[in-house]
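Q: Convert this sequence to structure tokens.
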Amino acid sequence: MSRLVMKFGGTSVADLERIRRVARLVAAEVEAGHQVAVVVSAMAGKTNELVAWTDGAGPAAQGIQPSDDEYDVVVASGEQVTAGLLAMTLRNMGVRAQSWLGWQVPIIADDAHGKARIDDIPPEKLGAALDDGQVAVIAGFQGVTRDGRIATLGRGGSDTSAVAIAAAIGAACDIYTDVDGVYTTDPRIESKARKLAKISYEEMLEMASLGAKVLQTRSVELAMAYHVPVRVLSSFVEPGEAPGQGTIVCDEEEIVEKRIVSGVAYSRDEAKISLFGLPDHPGVSSTIFGALADANVNVDMIVQSHARVADTANMEFTVGRRDAQRAMELIRAVQPQVGFEDVRCDEDVAKVSVIGVGMRSHAGVAKSMFKALADKGVNIQVISTSEIKISVLIDAAYTELAVRALHAAYGLDQL
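A:
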């Protein structure tokens, strides 16, 4: 008997009627003969409400460490409510079900509260429950540290929970969301966006990390590492209404016809930090980025150029907008040690990217991108590339224009 993990996001369990629809989808998979584990998020908006409550508790007094572990206790409670309600609904339909919290599975995580990483999921308890014919309804987004404290996995962490559980119990993973698959770009911006039947793990990883909201980045990393078959599909259908729906995330070798570009992603959650008059000698970059790394501030695009003054350089890089002020504080703290002249922060920027495994074997992808943006009068501030993606930083006001222009430039509306 095959095993299946079904994951439902916040909009899919936003109220009792939607939870009843989820229960019908789960019951249909049980009827089809699967052993089913279900991972649920908190109801839509609930986590934001809980986070706001923790903010309302006020900042820590001087000399007192932030209560990150207690923050996790509060924000993890949303998933507990959903898991209990879904298990109750399934039982009322005659389906054997039981809710599981992160510490009961257990999903063992490190102690980086608020953004913990999963260390291990012993499969014995969960596997025994599934073998016994129970549906295991698991609270997503949460784990337990080795000293018994609740730890949350970061926003979107229920995707990570689902894929990690699938890997642990040898299951496929269906991610149910408010869209019916992975699209060439955001359909809210470009009405001609097309749904992809298949997308490679690598492409999905790039799209997730570059702003696409369909899957959380770490969930794709796990799926790729453990070869977990993942399908993205809509929860807003009844069982049997849309056979063969969704997008399959799989190994590149399973995609027969590889597209040069598979999608256009964007992120408005960006801030550009510019450093002027840096001493141009070894160790400077190490000091700056070391301070940011020690504070868990993630740096993305980086460009350095010679300044007009001899033996000095200018540098620009991007961080997440939430980290911008923290990054500025850290950089100013090392200014006496490094000796740069000035630092500035611009939060009115966006990152737009094109992604495709076909870039490996086709020249001219960058030329097409830069021409399409130039034709629309969009100025490029920073560029970064990898083997299968090109990203540019632009003025935030041009985000939608750039996305539409690039979508058309690569013929994605013709798929």
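The CA atoms of residues 27 and 95 lie 7 Å apart.
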